[in-house]
Amino acid sequence: MKSQDVRNQFLQFFKSKSHSIVSSAPMVIKDDPTLMFTNAGMNQFKEFFLGNSEPKNSRVTDTQKCLRVSGKHNDLEEVGHDTYHHTMFEMLGNWSFGDYFKKEAIQWAWELLTEVYKINPENLYVSVFEGSKDNDKLELDTEALELWKAIVPEERIIYGNKKDNFWEMGDQGPCGPCSEIHIDIRSDEEKAKTSGRELVNADHPQVVEIWNLVFMQYNRKADGSLEELPAKHIDTGMGFERLCMVLQGKQSNYETDVFTPLIREIEAVTNKEYGTSEKANIAFRVIADHVRAVAFSIADGQLPSNTGAGYVIRRILRRAIRYGFTFLDTKEPFIYKLVATLSRQIGETFPELKSQKQLCENVIREEEISFLRTLDQGLVLLENIIEEAEGKKISGKKAFELYDTYGFPIDLTALILRERGYDLDEKEFEAELKKQKDRSRAATQVTAGDWTELNSVEKDAFIGYDHLESEVKIAKYRKVENKKQGELFQIVLNKTPFYPEGGGQVGDKGYLEAENGNVVYIIDTKRENNQIIHFAKSLPKNPEATFKAVVDASQRARTAANHTATHLLHQALRKILGEHVEQKGSMVHSGYLRFDFSHFSKVSKEQLEEVEAFVNARIRENHELNEQRNIAYQDALDQGAIALFGEKYGDSVRAIRFGESMELCGGIHVKNTADIWHFKIVSEGAVASGIRRIEAITGDAVKDYFAEQDKTMDEVKTLLKNSKDPVKSISNLQEENSELKKQVESLLKDKAKSLKSDLKNEIEEVNGINFLAKLVDIDAGGIKDLAFQLDNEMDNLFLVFGTEQNGKALLSCYISKNLVAEKDLNAGTIIRELGKYIQGGGGGQPFFATAGGKNPAGLNDALQKAKEYIK
Ligand code: ATP
Ligand code: MG
To answer: Which residues participate in Zn(2+) binding (predicted)?
Structure first.
């Protein structure tokens, strides 16, 4: 069965059980401070479990792109070494939001596996939660146990502990007991030797978990305690690649058609064969796996970078490069070449990979080039460390420096040292690493208290599209603390006019005013888990009172102008540069706007002018804002709206239209394009390979900009003696300047000529050598020229010149080549000796050498010494 069919059958099966099929959420998470990447299918539904919002369908099914490389679920180190853990994988899932519970979940899972996929039930083991005696005091899951007993013989039911049978997404959030389904795909011979039962959850590559049915019923709070969720839910997750392994009768995920095209392509580009050595095999698997993780996240809009999620992606890619470099001898970029294969293999299911192929290739290639360079440099540095080592032990501090400052991977250091017969002080390295981690943890750690709940949040709590002010009550608040900002309060209101940061637009600022006139300033607004959080430095005296919430209107207006201008800019770029232009990030605040987009060459000055003119024309056409607030996603696309990759859209969306520009957008816009007044681009440049950035300003900022330009112009005119035509005056000055330069040059030449003939007369003959030692007033280049010119006219020269330039002393020594050979003279040795008189050092070639020093007073002595020497 092809992987494509495996996926389809899963979705169709649950569709037949009244589930609606939904699409995967982006892999990179943007609005949840507790999670960087989607690590399970349930992440996108977290708000439904918590009761923060209502799902449209109570039964859904999907395949979700997951990435397990950080936080609670981190499989990175296993990947490649085993055959069934990936960084990026698809998780097939079915969900019940307060609808069916354990009975249906268990029965359907069994039906699908044994009747649809026709897996032999005797190879399946299931587990139930045995309970826990720790603080949580949880009981044995008798309900699940009874349900399983009705379908599976008891010898294949396993009682599992909290680690295996109580699923938690992270340190906080929805959680609950679970039942896992494991499969034994060993040969009959192996099965006869050891019972599969003993190998469940024992890291055996052929006895693996394929499906986890989680019975969501608790929420883990910040203080570690559990609270019952408002309703009970089902959350299941089945590893797609593992299921393919089972159904395709393979022993490893990498032998399924999900991976074989990639493995074959790696063989082709590296000229190595999969299956020849265990080390190379690991490298093959690492690379085949990691290219997926990296390409998917780039397609989701997350580029490799130096911080946060971008840094995690960079490290994954570097791990792949390093395995190739070390075990497959790849010294040139090659991973980017796999993107085409990947896009062919999976582009039907995830079209973003098809449309972003070129971008993925460019970005990966660039990263490869730069990291290979790092590796080369690191190898040289490591060589130095080895040379300087006393004995056979290499300091962990030095290795850490190599790792920390130069990004050279520690396992590569260890490997090379081992091969060369050296020992790395790993303890010292670990200690340094820990010190650094502690430092950065302390800097970013956020401690959050529990919420104090006062009121409930209204259903459509955000009223900021229509209001800048409103009477509100505090729904809940808590204290958070981090090193950077110190103590802050997070406040959730029953409803709010404050726009929470999102879609590139910054959060609103403003204040809450109590009846007695006391105010608390809101310094930022963000959306987290579908709640709007207001940040304040203090709390109102009486949090239970009613407040007037007031948004800073002037800041809001300037931000809105920039946001609308961003849409017009997007439209202009697609018109003028082409439809390949895709938004890759934007930042809209009150001061200016920033827009990143895919485009593979510099935008020319003429094109920029055209873009500016296009946007300004739309501004002057006075387009009214046309807003559709709750329109069906597909409907909006049919009307021509632009949706962004890596953005999570619900079934109903908000569409913003100004004339021909139409985008899905939740941000704040002007009522009419005329409100933008004017649009001006202030910079254009590259941010990454294939990604350009434009920064621009609108409205008052443009006025300020022009006023500033005016002022500078006035100053220029004043400097030009109130010239009426400053351009002409400046070009006259430039002409005059270059004329004067020419004159100076020719005068200097004359001076050198006359100096040369003067000096020629001063040369004295000593023992057949034409010798001169003299102080001259020309620079280093002039002295060199002079010496070479004299050499053209006279033989057997031995010249020493001294000069003082800008308070520093310079000595030069020139010896004709025949003298160097015949008399065994060396200008380099001589100049080093003379250099001592001017407190300096130097060197050069046997026929010409120079020394610089900080003591011009010693020049005469040096020349005197030269005379004595020659005599
Ligand atoms: P394991 O113990 O094998 O690491 P898990 O307990 O971490 O699995 P869950 O968090 O329950 O797994 O995830 C649900 C399903 O997703 C698993 O049953 C498995 O089939 C699949 N899965 C989990 N982690 C990975 C991974 N890193 N790569 C591929 N599939 C995975
Ligand atoms: Mg795991």
So the answer is: 563, 567, 665, 669
